[in-house]
């Protein structure tokens, strides 16, 4: 898996479009940014999923996907999200 999902060029594209929430996985961790005051600010809770500990959940999914197959890992992740909804 690539260590960086979003290149600087792609980040500039998001800036020009003012995407309100941006997730970047780099250096082995997920970072969430929101567009505020004409620039991206790092935040620790997703405005889209404020009730979910998304940083921890994604870290766990990535860790599990290294030891078990991707499909069972994704199914478990989806179930975990459904459990938060109820």
Describe the secondary-structure layout.
Blueprint: H1 8-17, E1 21-26, E2 29-36, E3 39-43, H2 54-65, H3 70-85
How would you describe what is shown here?
Helix 2 (54-65) runs antiparallel to helix 3 (70-85). It is built from three helices and three strands. The protein has helices at 8-17, 54-65, 70-85; strands at 21-26, 29-36, 39-43. The model is unreliable at 1-6 (pLDDT under 50). It has a three-stranded antiparallel beta sheet, with helices on one face. Strand 1 (21-26) and strand 2 form a beta hairpin. The protein has 86 residues and is of the alpha+beta class. It is globular and about 40 Å long.
Strand content: 15-25%
Mean pLDDT: 82
Tell me how many strands there are: 3
Question: What is the 3D form?
Answer: globular
Topology as H/E string?
HEEEHH
């Amino acid at each position: 898996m690539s260590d960086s999902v979003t290149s600087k060029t792609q980040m500039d594209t998001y800036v020009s479009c003012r995407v309100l929430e941006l997730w970047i996985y780099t250096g082995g961790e997920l970072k969430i940014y929101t567009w505020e005051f004409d620039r991206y600010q790092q935040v620790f809770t997703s405005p889209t999923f404020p009730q979910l500990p998304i940083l921890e959940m994604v870290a766990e999914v990535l860790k599990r996907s290294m030891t078990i197959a991707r499909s069972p890992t994704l199914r478990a992740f989806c179930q975990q999200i459904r459990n938060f909804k109820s």
